[in-house]
Q: What sequence folds into this?
């Protein structure tokens, strides 16, 4: 008879990151297909995924609305501006339903962009756990460090997607 395998229960971070991955499956833009989960005291407060504002057409339906973004080193990147990022959508959903997120932890697919980082700081979120790095996150890292937001990246690889 084969020896029974011992079940290993996932850590809280693994559990909530898996939920963020599931939320990402609802994303409507193939550039990143990101999801986010806001958690406090190991309880889910809100989720979000990347997508167009409510009632508007999605990238998956009509294509991307691309803009050239410039980084501080003179490089350029293509950025889709049709959508709202998963992190922002999770915060907006909490606000719409009157859920306080101060002191929460945010789980997301990749490090937040600078705009999301500033909103995260202003919302009082104290910890951000990401699956991967984001190519434009060096200022995010600086802002989080200065504001005292703890940033943890679980996988040292860079998130890659089409037309980055």
A:
């Amino acid at each position: 008879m084969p020896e029974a395998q011992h079940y290993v229960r996932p850590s809280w971070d693994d559990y909530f990151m898996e939920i963020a991955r599931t939320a990402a499956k609802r994303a409507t833009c193939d550039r990143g297909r990101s999801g986010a989960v806001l958690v406090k005291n190991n309880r889910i407060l809100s989720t979000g995924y990347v997508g167009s504002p409510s009632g508007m057409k999605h990238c998956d339906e009509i294509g991307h609305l691309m803009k050239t973004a410039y980084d501080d080193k003179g490089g350029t990147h293509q950025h889709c501006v049709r959508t709202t990022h998963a992190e922002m959508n999770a915060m907006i959903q909490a606000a719409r339903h009157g859920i306080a997120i101060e002191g929460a932890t945010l789980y997301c697919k990749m490090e937040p962009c600078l705009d999301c980082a500033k909103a995260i700081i202003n919302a009082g979120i104290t910890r951000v756990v990401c699956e991967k790095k984001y190519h434009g996150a060096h200022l995010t890292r600086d802002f989080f460090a200065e504001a005292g937001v703890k940033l943890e990246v679980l996988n040292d690889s860079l998130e890659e997607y089409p037309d980055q």
Observations:
- The helical segments are 12-24, 59-62, 86-96, 114-123, 138-147.
- The first strand starts at residue 35 and ends at 40.
